[in-house]
């Protein structure tokens, strides 16, 4: 049973219950925090709407999918966003959460323009598909997102408390240590909701949170929503295409074909249309072609009568943002500053995901060593010719680059397709934190992988190296970093895992053929030689060969190292640039 009011419908009587006491404490905490929610029902208090849209339009793929919407969402209430499939609910929710591109008109959320970086900790956004990590337990998922929200070391106890609170709120405590991938669809949706509840958000934007749930769970979730609004002053915008859920909302926004056809309370809507259900009211409104142009009232009273806007403004047709600016199209708002704590949280999360996948770790660690051993015995018949040494040394650098490229491109693509990337970028996580977190995790793995292969080559396979083996290891690790960077970068251009795998030959094979491994670079045709000069793998192989031949660090070794490092950093920055906070 979920942790909400006892009536099982609106949960408004929870204050007296033990959970209500905890909820009230939580509301108090949030209200006393800077920017905490306004009290919803203070007499004489007329708070500004949580969301205020005027002339809001969105174009996707050249088509207008939201057309000049005007509406308000009242604070501390549950507002339902209802309409048939494809009418634009998800697009509208994304616009409010700040993750939708090509938004025009004025859209203010919690008194800031939608998409403003300062809103990220204040909004909980639950996408339609559960955006959680299947290869982490429920508690590990919540722990990671809690660290993204509150990364300070001193916040550890508060994070643990928040995780326990949301586990109880979503009735998931008994599944806390189960992998998210082993949960049912409805349970995973609740994990996704639990993530959104972590930071005591002022506004919860929930995209079809009850789809696929049985009637008991649906009733329980609605009770939780009302308890959140009543006890903590949270504003909820909940989408659904099931009309019977409309009766459970305080306010309704009814949409059709990208337009708002009604904005009212359920009772006022049915009374105005002379119907008994919201579904028949919706059909009535459509039959009448009754499309209101006035926004819904923030105080629960319908406003379809040409009454002045609550702030005394004229009718806001075609109105622009109060500050005269258009809705921010690019992500021009100040991004959160890079945070070491969030980077390390991401590194830990990626390594934890790998820990649940021991076969991948084994393959990552063993395959390069197995390949170098195979190479050694392929050249067994040519012992004394010294062929194994240059090839072996070069491949020690090339293997980590190839494996890290593949692992990173698929891992990043998975972040994109599962929705976790959209969720993270709607939270206060810097792109650099995410990229550096990945680079550190895979860099650590690359060190182990390269150390194993290099150690094996030197001490078991008789690789004859004049210089220090540590220098070989250094080049191998930097190569792995380059592979990670390239993987992050190209994943932005792959629409599926199949495509990501195809990028491997496209990006790596030309480098492999031109790096001097198969033919000396200065003996290639001039065009190929020039091409080889601009490919980073050529410099990695040059550096490996310098270690092979010279006892000391040479200028050519340093140049090779500098080029590989520079390329890795450049491609990492390009990878960060491909992480868009907005969906097209
Ligand atoms: N990338 C895109 N390019 C062009 N049109 C798109 C794109 N994504 C969505 N659309 C269109 O935008 C419209 C609104 O889509 P949206 O997902 O917002 O609808 P919805 O009401 O949330 O639907 P559902 O209830 O099925 O989730 C749809 O007609 C859809 O076909």
Automatic annotation (TrEMBL):
Residue ranges with Low complexity bias: 21-39
Domain of life, source organism: Bacteria
Protein family according to the UniProt entry: Belongs to the ABC-2 integral membrane protein family.
Comp. bias intervals (Basic and acidic residues): 300-334
Protein name: Transport permease protein
ABC transporter domain segment(s): 51-282
Keywords: ATP-binding, Cell membrane, Membrane, Nucleotide-binding, Transmembrane, Transmembrane helix, Transport
All residue ranges annotated as the ABC transmembrane type-2 domain in the record: 359-582
The keyword DNA damage is assigned to this record: no
Residue intervals passing through the bilayer: 361-379, 391-413, 434-458, 470-493, 500-519, 557-579
UniProt main location, coarse: membrane
Positions of region (Disordered): 1-50, 289-339
Subcellular location: Cell membrane; Membrane
Topology term for the membrane: Multi-pass membrane protein
């Amino acid at each position: 049973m979920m942790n909400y009011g006892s009536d099982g419908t609106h949960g408004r009587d929870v204050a007296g219950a033990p959970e209500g006491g905890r909820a009230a404490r939580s509301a108090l905490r949030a209200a006393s925090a800077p920017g905490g929610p306004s009290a919803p029902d203070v007499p004489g208090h007329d708070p500004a709407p949580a969301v205020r849209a005027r002339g809001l339009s969105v174009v996707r793929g050249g088509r207008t999918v939201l057309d000049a919407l005007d509406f308000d969402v009242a604070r501390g209430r549950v507002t339902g966003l209802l309409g048939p499939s494809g009418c634009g609910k998800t697009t509208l929710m994304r616009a409010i959460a700040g993750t939708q591109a090509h938004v025009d008109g004025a859209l203010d959320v919690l008194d800031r323009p939608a998409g403003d970086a300062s809103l990220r900790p204040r909004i909980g956004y639950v996408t339609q598909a559960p955006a959680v990590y299947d290869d982490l337990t429920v508690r590990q998922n919540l722990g990671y997102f809690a660290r993204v929200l509150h990364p300070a070391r001193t916040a550890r106890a508060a994070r643990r408390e928040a995780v326990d609170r949301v586990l109880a709120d979503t009735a998931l405590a008994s599944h806390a240590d189960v992998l998210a991938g082993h949960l049912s669809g409805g349970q995973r949706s609740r994990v996704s909701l639990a993530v959104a509840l972590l930071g005591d958000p002022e506004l919860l934007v929930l995209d079809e949170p009850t789809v696929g749930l049985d009637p008991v769970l649906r009733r329980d979730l609605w009770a939780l929503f009302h308890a959140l609004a009543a006890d903590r002053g949270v504003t909820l915008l909940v989408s659904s295409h099931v009309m019977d859920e409309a009766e459970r909302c305080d306010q309704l926004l009814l949409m059709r074909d990208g337009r708002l056809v009604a904005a009212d309370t359920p009772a006022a809507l049915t009374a105005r249309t002379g119907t008994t259900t919201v579904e028949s009211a919706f059909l009535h409104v459509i039959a009448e072609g009754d499309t209101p142009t006035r926004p819904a009232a923030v105080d629960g009273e319908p406003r379809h009568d040409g009454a002045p806007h609550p702030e005394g403004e004229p009718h806001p047709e075609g109105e622009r943002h109060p500050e005269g600016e258009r809705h921010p199209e690019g992500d021009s708002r100040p991004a959160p500053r890079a945070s070491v704590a969030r980077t390390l949280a991401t590194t830990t999360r990626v390594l934890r995901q790998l820990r649940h996948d021991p076969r991948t770790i084994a393959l990552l660690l063993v395959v390069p060593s197995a390949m170098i051993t195979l190479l050694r015995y392929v050249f067994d018949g040519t012992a004394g010719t010294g062929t194994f040494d240059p090839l072996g040394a070069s491949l020690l650098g090339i293997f980590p680059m190839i494996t890290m490229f593949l692992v990173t491109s698929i891992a990043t693509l998975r972040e994109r397709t599962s929705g976790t990337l959209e969720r993270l970028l709607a939270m206060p996580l810097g792109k650099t934190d995410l990229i550096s977190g990945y680079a550190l995790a895979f860099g650590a793995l690359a060190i182990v992988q390269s150390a194993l292969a290099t150690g094996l080559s030197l001490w078991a396979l008789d690789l004859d190296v004049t210089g220090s083996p540590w220098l070989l290891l250094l080049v191998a690790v930097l190569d792995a970093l380059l592979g990670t960077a390239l993987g992050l970068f190209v994943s932005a251009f792959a629409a599926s895992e199949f495509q990501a795998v195809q990028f491997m030959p496209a990006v790596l094979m030309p480098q492999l053929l031109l790096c001097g491994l198969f033919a000396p670079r200065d003996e290639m045709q001039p065009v190929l030689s020039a091409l080889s000069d601009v490919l980073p793998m050529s410099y990695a192989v040059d550096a490996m060969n310098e270690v092979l031949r010279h006892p000391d660090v040479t200028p050519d070794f340093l140049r090779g190292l500098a080029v590989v490092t520079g390329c890795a950093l450049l491609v990492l920055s390009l990878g960060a640039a491909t992480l868009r906070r907005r969906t097209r």
